[in-house]
Specification:
The complex is a heterodimer of chains A (311) and B (302).
Chain A: H1 2-18, H2 23-60, H3 63-68, E1 72-73, E2 80-81, H4 84-115, H5 118-133, H6 136-153, H7 163-187, H8 191-199, H9 204-215, H10 217-233, H11 236-241, H12 259-268, H13 276-310
Antiparallel strand pairs in A: 1-2
Chain B: H1 3-23, H2 28-59, H3 65-69, H4 82-97, H5 99-113, H6 119-131, H7 136-150, H8 157-181, H9 185-193, H10 198-226, H11 230-234, H12 254-263, H13 267-298
Helix pairs in contact in B: 2-13, 4-8, 4-10, 4-12, 5-8, 5-10, 7-8, 8-10, 9-10, 10-13, 12-13
The chains are: A mainly alpha (311), B mainly alpha (302).
Chain lengths: 311, 302
């Protein structure tokens, strides 16, 4: 008897918690779950696509030659596979991008978060979003046909294609990203911290620099690491404005070839499958992937740490 | 505490602070700092203005009907961008039909149904965050290895659109999740209390409420994809195409055509590139305008 009265009750409670088990419902949720799996497949696909040909490449070319020699001429005879010029090229454009986007992005973020009135913020933020949405081919055009001639007209004899112009314009592209992510981090700082320091007689300059920025520092740092990662991976602007001359130089006025520009230039040309020139695309791609992956993980971890503090 | 509340109290604190500060002489450091902030913000705004000005000055003289209706030609006087414009629109349509539903489905699953505490769900989330920051050229390599060479699809429009779709996924997934998260829990609880299943609640209540946010995020992802150049270079979009594209024909999209024209030695092609940039920007503005209209029309305040 006891069992009989208990059973329907238990049934009823599970029915309330889990709802009726409908097959149709399960199928739909299963379908949605399989959509989520696609993103994992994309990552696996990327790793497989890069690893296979790269392993074949490194069977022919030693890691020592790849990372320590300084001549990159995979399509010449005899071919040379020293990736250092591509690394210095990437370093050069990334450096100038950072010189622009890190300080100016942070400045914009502090202004928008701590100083600007609501009306100014409502006007400025969409404009910065537009800047972030300009296609990179347009920015490349701007670097090549506006900035480089401008530099030459003020007496700096840069090459037609140069690391400085490309880097500065990448910086302009990334400025809104740094600004927006850093501003989010500062917005997450509780206003009680600000009010407390205002109450102690601090002015806005002191509150911004000694309270808000230190409190939001991991979010700000994450936005900067992400910007560095994006600058390293930017392709179209460097392809158009930095040139395709693989030389080991850090001079801002020199033409350079970045890792991304090499991949794009070689991949868009007519390279036959299976040749070692074809495999260089993947070897350089793997190098690029590992560098940006490391930076992304650092950025994601930093964001997570900053979230734990205030939520 | 909600955002409006926080802003209001910050504003109040700021007002008190400025009245206090106003009476004192500001330190040199504080003035220099304010100058740095205003300069930083102004820099981005001025850069955008100069950029648009340059494009308009270079491109407007070359913007005519031939550009919209003609096909690419080695003669700058006759060259047009019609096949590229059509291909860009077709790419956008393919993306709306493939990547968009996939991304929204992923967002709905992760936000509404996924068991949050399981390690594989966390792995999927971490993976999406990382995918969002992978260089676009890497997606091009993926397309080159699997779609164009591996599947033997060749350098066709569908292959390019699929690669852009995969690249677009994380942006739209993240936007969709944020839009769904903004729908208050009371909506879900109300639906369930009336006896609806979780799926019914999501399909009839939560998703319609999240549509404006999802649409905005989708358009953002779409316009990035339509303006993208690098990955398409890898999957063979950089060809001379003078006919109207189909799904399985060779193609060139607007950004690639701009890239090619820019590299030609004749000065007239620079102008044509700038004119094509105006067309591309107009296309993107139209898409974003649609998103804003959509958001304003369907926006609900909770």
């Amino acid at each position: 008897m006891a069992a009989n009265t208990n059973l329907p009750l238990r049934d009823r409670s599970t029915a309330l918690i889990h709802g009726r088990k409908r097959t149709g419902e399960r199928v739909v949720i299963g379908t949605l779950a399989s959509a989520a799996i696609v993103s994992i497949l994309v990552t696996i696909g990327i790793v497989l696509a890069l690893l296979g040909p790269s392993l074949e490449f490194f069977r022919d070319v030693s890691l020592g030659e790849f990372f320590t020699t300084t001549t990159w001429a995979p399509l010449f005879t005899p071919p040379r596979y020293g990736v250092v010029p591509l690394l210095t090229g990437t370093l050069s454009t990334t450096f100038w991008a950072c010189v622009i986007c890190l300080p100016l992005g942070l400045g914009s973020a502090i202004y928008l978060s701590e100083y600007a009135s609501r009306r100014v913020r409502a006007a400025v933020k969409p404009v910065l979003e537009v800047l972030a949405g300009i296609p990179t081919v347009v920015l490349g055009y701007f670097a090549l046909t506006f900035l480089t001639p401008l530099l030459r007209s003020i007496g700096w004899q840069v090459d037609i294609f140069n690391a400085f112009s490309a880097g500065v314009i990448i910086g302009v592209l990334l400025l809104p990203t740094v600004a927006s992510l850093s501003e989010d981090a500062m917005k997450a700082v509780p206003s009680s911290l600000r009010e407390g320091s205002f109450g102690l007689g601090a002015n806005r300059f002191q509150v911004s620099t000694r309270v808000v920025v230190p409190a939001a520092v991991s979010g700000i740092a994450a936005s900067m690491v992400l910007a560095v990662s994006r600058a390293i991976g930017e392709t179209t602007i460097v392809l158009i404005a930095a040139g395709q001359l693989a030389q080991t130089t850090l001079m801002p006025g020199d033409a350079v070839e970045t890792m991304t520009a090499f991949i794009a230039a070689t991949g868009s040309g007519d390279v036959s499958v299976g040749t070692i020139a074809y495999k260089t695309i993947f070897a350089v791609g793997l190098t690029l992937f590992v560098i940006t992956l490391a930076l992304n993980i650092v950025a994601i971890r930093m964001v997570r740490r900053f979230r734990e503090v205030y939520e | 505490m909600n955002a409006a509340n926080r802003t209001a109290s910050t504003a109040a604190a700021n007002a008190v602070a400025s009245s206090l500060v106003g009476r004192r002489q500001r330190s040199v450091g504080a003035r220099l700092f304010l100058f740095y902030l205003v300069f930083s913000t102004g820099f981005g705004l001025v850069a955008l203005a100069v950029l648009l000005g340059t494009i308009l000055v270079d491109g407007l003289p070359f913007l005519d009907l031939t550009l919209l209706t003609g096909a690419p030609s080695s003669n700058p006087g006759m060259a047009g961008a019609r096949p590229a414009i059509l291909a860009s629109i077709m790419v956008a349509i393919v993306l709306v039909a493939t990547a968009l539903p996939l991304a929204v489905a992923t967002g709905v699953y992760l936000e509404e149904f996924a068991p949050r505490d399981r390690w594989w769900i966390r792995l999927i989330e971490l993976n999406i965050q990382n995918l969002a920051a992978i260089p676009s050229i890497i997606f091009g390599i993926l397309g080159l290895a699997f779609l164009v060479r591996g599947l033997g699809l060749g350098p066709v429009l569908l292959a390019g659109a699929l690669i852009l779709g995969l690249q677009m996924l994380p942006t739209v997934i993240i936007a969709a999740r944020e839009a769904l998260r903004a729908v208050p829990a009371s909506v879900r609880q109300g639906g369930m209390a009336l006896g609806a299943t979780r799926l019914q609640v999501v399909w009839r209540e939560v998703l319609p409420a999240a549509i404006p946010g999802i649409a905005t995020g989708s358009i953002l992802g779409l316009s990035r994809a339509v303006g993208e150049t690098a990955p398409l270079l890898m999957v063979g979009a950089a060809t001379f195409v003078s006919y109207n594209p189909g799904l399985l024909t060779q193609y060139t999209v607007l950004p690639i055509l701009i890239y090619q024209w820019m590299r030609l030695p004749q000065a007239d092609f620079q102008g044509l590139a700038a004119a094509a940039i105006i067309v591309l920007l107009a296309l993107l503005i139209a898409m974003n305008g649609f998103a804003i209209w959509m958001r304003n029309r369907h926006e609900r305040k909770w």
